């Protein structure tokens, strides 16, 4: 009889188009994956993959089986979610996280996730949102907290709230009279997220003045480095004030008033809906809950 493990292995080989990537995804070895596929083909008496030295692809029968495999695995995920206790959930979740989330509530999420799902391991990668979006589509990540939503077929997105952007400066940095105009801002280097991100492209577009020139933009993928450069008077940073709560409270940094309206950064917990999302769905819901608590706590602190 065809078992669930063989169907799961077959499904991920078909999705990732690689025996080695499927083995990594399922925390097993490539020989074990190859043996399972060979046994499945023997049992069904048909070839499921066309193999070459550089790639694999589904046969006609393989494409038929993928549909059945996904339906079986979705049903198993739904059954476990409905019946099993959180302690029964097992596996490795590959989580991608934007550094804005790292600097705000990620540690509380990890603590809560480990308490609720003690047998689930979370493998964290910190990266920029465009890279994580591609990794989700390629199934190299199971879940990501990123600038979203990810508008791809079979992708689920849960709202994680928004963060306001602001111009930030060292408290003792001498500036022109505020609010600073677009022309004033062109006098200072601006430090923000990497070139592939929305804040960078927005600043380049909104602050470019034909008769004067374009802004001097320093991009960096590390928020801690951006914060340090701002404290060292290298320029003004464009980041959410929420990620520098401690520095603002200590008087090291301050928000600069300008005439430029900056967009909010909207984050989502996004994951592929393959097999119902598996444990990624409940973890995304938990992340949304932690994000709401973080926003509520910050609002309470501001009122106080």
From TrEMBL:
Gene3D superfamilies: Periplasmic binding protein-like II (3.40.190.10), Winged helix-like DNA-binding domain superfamily/Winged helix DNA-binding domain (1.10.10.10). Signal peptide: none annotated. Keywords: DNA-binding, Transcription, Transcription regulation. It comes from the Bacteria. GO terms for molecular function: DNA-binding transcription factor activity; transcription cis-regulatory region binding. Belongs to the LysR transcriptional regulatory family. PANTHER family: HTH-TYPE TRANSCRIPTIONAL REGULATOR, TRANSCRIPTIONAL REGULATORY PROTEIN. This is Transcriptional regulator, LysR family.
């Amino acid at each position: 009889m065809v078992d669930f493990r063989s169907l799961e292995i077959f499904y991920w080989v078909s999705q990732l188009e690689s025996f080695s990537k499927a083995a990594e995804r399922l925390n097993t070895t490539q020989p074990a994956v190859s043996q399972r596929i060979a046994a499945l083909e023997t049992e069904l008496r048909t070839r499921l993959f066309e193999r070459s030295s550089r790639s694999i692809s589904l046969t006609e029968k393989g494409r038929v089986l993928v549909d059945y495999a996904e339906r079986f695995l979705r049903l198993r995920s739904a059954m476990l979610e409905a019946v099993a206790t959180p302690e029964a959930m097992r596996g490795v979740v590959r989580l991608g996280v934007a550094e804005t989330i790292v600097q705000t509530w990620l540690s509380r999420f990890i603590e809560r996730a480990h308490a609720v799902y003690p047998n689930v391991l979370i493998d964290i990668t910190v990266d920029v949102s465009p890279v994580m979006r591609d990794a989700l589509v390629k199934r190299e990540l199971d879940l990501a907290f990123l600038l979203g939503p990810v508008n791809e077929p079979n992708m689920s997105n849960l709202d994680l709230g928004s963060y306001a952007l602001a111009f930030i400066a060292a408290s003792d940095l001498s500036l022109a009279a505020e609010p600073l105009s677009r022309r004033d801002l062109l006098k200072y280097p601006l430090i923000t997220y990497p070139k592939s991100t929305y804040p960078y492209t927005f600043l380049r577009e909104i602050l470019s003045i034909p008769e004067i020139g374009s802004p001097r933009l320093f991009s960096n993928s590390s928020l801690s480095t951006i914060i340090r450069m701002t404290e060292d008077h290298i320029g003004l940073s464009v980041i959410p004030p929420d990620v520098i709560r401690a520095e603002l409270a200590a008087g090291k940094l301050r928000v600069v008033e300008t005439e430029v309206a900056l967009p909010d950064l909207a984050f989502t917990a996004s994951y592929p809906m393959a097999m119902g999302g598996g444990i990624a769905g409940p973890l995304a819901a938990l992340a949304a809950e932690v994000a709401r608590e973080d926003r509520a706590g910050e609002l309470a602190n501001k009122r106080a």
